[in-house]
Amino acid sequence: MPSTPLVQFASVEKRFGSGPAVLQGIDLTVAAGEFVSLIGPSGCGKSTMLRLIAGLTPVSSGKLSISEQPPGSAAPELGFVFQEPTLLPWLTVAKNVEVPLILRGFGSEERARRRERALAQVRLAEKSKAYPQQLSGGQKMRVSVARALALQPEILLLDEPFGALDEMTRDHLNEELLSIRQQQAWTAFFVTHSVAEAVFLSNRIVVLAAGPGRIHSIVEVPFAYPRTADTRQSDDFHHLVVRVSRALRSVDPTATSAP
Q1: What are the distances in angstroms from CA 76 to CA 7, 51, 59, 71, 238?
Q2: Mind listing the pLDDT tens digit for each residue in 152-172?
Q3: The pLDDT of residue 164
């Protein structure tokens, strides 16, 4: 596993206004190149942690640094993939991928180069002229991922991007995501409610408790990359799913080990 610290939470607390703490006592160091999944009950602050990293909301106390800088300052490029594809229906797939590049001020030639590479990575080059309403749910999420990848991010934040998809499509996109990661190294923070998804994708799984959000435990995932559909069939994989599920149930009795 890479050892260079990239993202560091030190006693981080987050409150909104005068309300109760959403996150409290968060201590976490993530190395460059790691894939870290955040899992826990609703309201435990998983998505808030992503927003803190992205600099979309400030910490209330403690310290969060990215490459030893405050979030949103001279930090590395970040890509954000949300729960919904949030594609603009009046733009083609190609133009949707270019939106963040236009906002960053890239010229047309560089935009085209990055767009074509990103669409090729998610296997949607042939859909570049299609409109969002002509795509399946899985294809829309691929476009959303391509839009983030076009920024060539050092950090990729993914907030339950595949949660609304059927299990087969989600598994396939998980495999594609890891394949892309081999080509374009980035550090990933991945929010999910699926234990199996977290185990398949991650180097480490952070199990969060709620009320306030806090780290309950961190589980190391020992499986080497690349991971394939066969990985999911191994006894070791199933044993780890059970272990993480037990940790999750200890903080959320309603949780199951279902994908």
Answers
A1: 10, 15, 18, 9, 36
A2: 999 999 999 998 889 999 999
A3: 84
* In the block, residue with structure tokens 């981080």: 12
Any idea which residue has 């030639």 for tokens?
109
Residue 114 has pLDDT above 70, yes or no: yes
Closest CA to 55 of 69, 38, 36, 39: 69
Strands 204-209 and 214-220: antiparallel
Among 73, 58, 70, CA closest to 17:
58
Whole-number Å distance between alpha carbons of 210 and 212:
5
pLDDT band at residue 259 under the 50/70/90 scheme: low
Give the list of residues 6+ apart from residue 230 with CB closer than 8 angstroms, or none: none
Question: Is the distance from CB of 229 to CB of 221 less than 8 angstroms?
Answer: no
Single-letter code of the amino acid located at 141? M
Tell me how far CA of residue 231 lies from CA of 195, 205, 228, in angstroms. Answer: 14, 17, 5
CA 118 – CA 120 distance, rounded (Å): 5
